[in-house]
Amino acid sequence: MGEPSKHHCSPSARLRRTARVVTVATCIGCGCTDDRACPGGCSWIIVERTSGIGVCTRCSAHLDEFHAKVEAALAAREAGEA
After folding, report:
1. Residue 53 maps to a domain
2. Which domain holds residue 41?
3. pLDDT at 51 (0 to 100)
4. How many folded domains does the chain comprise?
5. What is the pLDDT of residues 50-66, one digit of tens each?
6. How many Cβ atoms sit within 10 Å of the Cβ of residue 56?
7. Which is it for strands 53-56 and 44-48: parallel, antiparallel or unpaired?
8. Which pLDDT does position 4 carry in this prediction?
9. Is 57 a domain residue?
10. Could you tell me if residue 3 is inside a domain?
11. What is the residue-wise DSSP string for 22-71?
């Protein structure tokens, strides 16, 4: 006989646990996304996948707004859990 399995759950359960759903993020400044960058290119300065928002390198003036939105979303989630 072979060695006992080191996994304590079924293969389908392992697949569900390791699968990742990635939310496409949108820049709060210009509206670019993971799939559609700014003309000439850009990258994320900061991105919050849970909320699906970020700030690209062309929109750094929106960083304070980004932090406020993330804090508000976190507070709303925490209030919903209470």
Report:
1. yes
2. 22-81
3. 87
4. 1
5. 889 999 999 999 999 99
6. 25
7. antiparallel
8. 46
9. yes
10. no
11. PPPPEETTT--BSSSPPTT---EEEEETTTTEEEETT-GGGHHHHHHHHH
Sheet of strand 53-56, all strands in order from the earlier edge strand to the far edge: 26-27, 53-56, 44-48
Say how far apart CA 53 and CA 14 lie, in whole Å: 29
Residue 4's identity, in one-letter code, is: P
Q: How many CB atoms lie within 10 A of CB 9?
A: 11
Q: Is 52 left (phi over 0), alpha (psi -120 to 50) or beta?
A: left
Spatial neighbors of 59 by CB under 8 A, at least 6 apart, are 27, 28, 29, 30, 45
Phi then psi for residue 73, to 5 deg, are: -65, -40
Per-residue confidence at 80, pLDDT binned at 50, 70, 90? Answer: confident
What φ, ψ does residue 76 adopt, rounded to 5°? Answer: -65, -40
- Residue 23: the pLDDT is 84
How far is residue 18's CA from residue 14's CA, in Å, rounded to a whole number? 6
For residue 6, being part of any structural domain is answered with no
